Amino acid sequence: MKKILIALDYNPNSEKVVEKGYELAKLMGAEICLFHVLSDVRYYGMQFEPFMGYEGYAFPMNYNIQEEFKKVAIDYLDKAKKHFGDSNEVIITTHLAEGDTAKEVLKYAESWGAHLIVMGTHSHSTLEKIFLGTVASSVLERTKVPVYMVPVGE
């Protein structure tokens, strides 16, 4: 196994996923691609009642906002890559995709030639899994590539 795709979301627990993927890459002498999917931006513009000091995204939606979200996502991936410094142990690249997260993970894993997908699995209620499913379960149901799941839920 020489190529490991590490799928990241904006959850702070993603650091744990990256660390586990990096450990695997070092053990196997593999290359890493830190991968993030930018979903449909209309979901980012939702307003919520404030909770725990969080007020959601309070900005007007416009057609240029997609480009702003891309810049934020690219910055996120770059910072995740820099987290490891100038390591000569592992080659690290990044890739940003847009669309349905599970579909994009599977599509890029195949096109990049990934030998392993590393991703986190969040704690969700059984009822939520039945009605909504999860990205992790969608990937597991359709992948041709082995998946290493890192539990990051509470």
UniProtKB/TrEMBL annotation:
**Annotated localization:** Cytoplasm
Cited InterPro entries: Rossmann-like_a/b/a_fold (IPR014729), Universal_stress_UspA (IPR006015), UspA (IPR006016)
| Ranges for domain UspA | 1-151
Q: What SUPFAM superfamilies does the database record attribute to this sequence?
A: Adenine nucleotide alpha hydrolases-like
Identify one Pfam family in the record: Usp
Keyword Iron-sulfur attached: no
Q: Which UniProt keywords apply?
A: Cytoplasm
Q: What Gene Ontology cellular-component terms does the record carry?
A: cytoplasm
Protein family per UniProt: Belongs to the universal stress protein A family.
Instruction: Report what the protein is called.
Output: Universal stress protein
